[in-house]
Amino acid sequence: MRVIVLGSGGTIPTQTRNLPSFALKRDGELLLFDCGEGTQLQLMGAKLGFGPLERICISHLHGDHVTGIPGLLMTLGQSNREKPLTIHGPPGIDTFIQSIMKNLSIHLHYQVHVAEIEKGLVHNNSHYRIESVPADHNIFTLAYAFIEAERPGRFDVTKARELGVPPGPLYRALQEGKDVRSGDGRIVRSSDIVGPPRPGRKVVYALDTRPCSAVVELARGADVLIHDAMFTEELQAEANERGHSTARQAAEIAQQAVVGQLILAHISPRYETAKELLDEALSIFTETRVGEDSMGVEIPVHK
Predict the structure, then answer these.
(1) What CATH architecture does domain 2-151+198-298 belong to?
(2) What is the mean pLDDT of each run of 10 residues along the chain (303 residues)?
(3) Cβ pair 35, 21 in contact under 8 A
(4) SS3 sequence, the chain?
């Protein structure tokens, strides 16, 4: 599983930072979190392709988070796409998408499904689920958690052989939690061969938010937290007024939630480099990096 930064800036694009968009690629499937202006170009530059894109999760309806949707929809239409695309977002996202389709005369050969949400479960399948909570911004905004399903425990092949279980269907039955009968008639319990389930990986996306307890709980134990860090601490009053966080506050959230690593994002265009932001966050939470456009972060499975 891999997180790819497509746009790490906020408010307006700069020469080094595009507007907010993060991609998550897992087993050939691609998801987007927000879709700032030019996202389709960033997808091309990252060589992610358009075919694997399944769904887009929009945090809120401020322009810098949604202005890439029209271009992306049109680009997908020109790529002969046929499979549906799902767009999740806060109340109002459906009206926004329908307005785009009507007023830009976009005619697509694929279906666009729009699902408005306020909190809770966004999507669920046998491989992963997506959950959401309201963040704390100046308009209604969602933070998202991508949570993989548990993986089966480790299978002890040596022990299975010692207990007389032949390879084949009985191995699968043990992996599925079923007890089996060995070649000499003994009952072999799955729990004796298969270790406890291993937790899936977890990525949390929380941009355009003041520090809030809901995000802390959503991010609890996450492998990666992508968090708003628009300003340094000296501009905390401005950050609060505008519904954002400082780098220090983002680091405090990461520390409270006990995450694996923190990625600072939604960097203000006033910063030519993000060194000040990084130094500030590192003083609180050492596993911090600044999101840079085109940066990829590998998330290994839990052993």
Answers:
(1) 4-Layer Sandwich (3.60)
(2) 97 95 96 97 94 96 97 90 95 96 83 96 96 98 97 85 85 86 83 87 98 98 98 97 98 98 97 96 98 97 86
(3) yes
(4) CEEEEEECECCCCCCCCCCCEEEEEECCEEEEECCCCCHHHHHHHCCCCCCCEEEEECCCCCHHHHCCHHHHHHHHHHCCCCCCEEEEECCCHHHHHHHHHHHCCCCCCCCEEEEECCCEEEEECCCEEEEEEECCCCCCCEEEEEEECCECCCECHHHHHHCCCCCCHHHHHHHCCCCEECCCCCEECHHHHECCCECCCEEEEECCCCCCHHHHHHHCCCCEEEEECCECHHHHHHHHHHCCCEHHHHHHHHHHHCCCEEEEECECCCCCCCHHHHHHHHCCCCCEEECCCCCEEECCCCC
First-to-final CA distance of the chain = 14
Q: pTM here?
A: 0.91
63 beta partners: none
| Contact call for residues 235 and 270 (beta carbons, < 8 A) | no
Instruction: Report in angstroms the alpha-carbon separations of 36 from 41, 169, 234, 277, 295.
Output: 11, 49, 27, 22, 16
CB 276 within 8 A of CB 232: yes
Domain ranges of the chain: 2-151+198-298, 157-193
CA distance 213 to 239: 17
Active site residues: 64
Q: Cα–Cα distance between 275 and 188 in angstroms, integer? A: 58
Q: Specify the residue for token string 């997808």.
A: 43
In this structure, are residues 278 and 290 in contact, taking their beta carbons and an 8 Å threshold? yes
